[in-house]
TrEMBL record:
Pfam short name (any one): Ribosomal_L10
GO BP: translation
Superkingdom of this protein's organism: Bacteria
Name by which UniProt lists this protein: Large ribosomal subunit protein uL10
SUPFAM superfamilies: Ribosomal protein L10-like (SSF160369)
Source species of the chain: Candidatus Roizmanbacteria bacterium GW2011_GWC2_37_13
Keyword Acyltransferase: no
GO CC aspect terms: ribonucleoprotein complex; ribosome
Amino acid sequence: MVSTQKKSQVESLNNLLKEKSNFVLIKIGKTTHQSLENLRRELKKADSSLKVIKNTLFEKALNRSSAEKAVFKDLIKKFFPLREPTAVITFSEDWGAGLKSFYEFVQKEKTLSFKLALLDNALYNSEEAEKIAKLPSREELIAKTIGSMKSPINKFVYAIKYNTNKVVYILKIKSNNPSKA
């Protein structure tokens, strides 16, 4: 007989999948509780959350949700059954910041790693998820683009002002030392 606790956990995971469409499954293997708590704090800053899950209960929740979302059927076909202890990181609509903070945490804590990612209704394996996490954020890309657009203008203005600045510099030196003139 199925326990009510397991039913409630499956229901909780099912609700989580309905609310948060972007998530990453991670291997937590031999990670300490203290490390997971530190990771939770880091993810909270990026409006993300971490939940340790049982693989079988997560699969049951996915099976229930697969009627509503076809991407869950693909996820089950490609990645299940899951092995090793697992946790799920759920993101807000802007998943880039949460993914980046997890990746930076993984660089310090080597016992954690990606299993798979579901971002914007697209599935990614562990290698692809890591590549996405390494990418600069949207804000960084915008800043770089604006900087590269502004750079030629700055160089052009500098080139125009160069000769006049040199003349002004020479005249200033001559005015400070009239004896050498």
